[in-house]
Design goal:
This protein is mainly alpha-helical. The protein has helices at 2-17, 49-52, 67-86, 99-125; strands spanning 31-33, 45-47. The N and C termini lie far apart (72 Å).
């Protein structure tokens, strides 16, 4: 019985230890980055690893955004999340970028693209 419990415990631990915040097929030794844009899907891009590594002696506040800018970004994201929630997407309004927000963002962009295509077809028939 203990053996079965241990196997189940370790299997579930390994199963849920993997994060979903990775590119689909990451390769060892390569660096990836992603940036949230309100008009584009949230995708991973391969970047130069040297551009990501920071020199500890040159790490100043000028590299990081100011507190005021961070608050503005958070407020903008909160308003966007409220907009998505108002349109019927399932997500929590936290002001932070979560997987729920990303999924709702992608669904919203697809819906907007479908609506634009439908309008384009309708206008071309006239």
């Amino acid at each position: 019985m203990r053996f079965l419990f241990l196997i189940t415990f370790f299997f579930n631990t390994i199963l849920f230890a993997q994060t979903i915040n990775l590119p689909k097929n990451p390769k060892a030794g390569e660096c990836y980055s992603r940036k949230f844009d309100y008009n584009k899907p949230y995708v991973w891009k391969k970047v130069n690893c040297d551009s990501i590594k920071r020199n500890k002696t040159k790490h100043k506040d000028s590299i990081l955004p100011s507190k005021r800018e961070l608050v503005k970004r958070q407020l903008k994201l909160t308003k966007y999340q409220e907009k998505l929630k108002g349109l019927g997407y399932k997500l929590e309004v936290t002001g932070m970028l979560t997987d729920q927000t990303i999924k709702a963002h992608h669904k919203y962009l697809k819906a907007v693209a479908r609506k634009a295509k439908k309008l384009e077809r309708k206008n071309s028939k006239k």
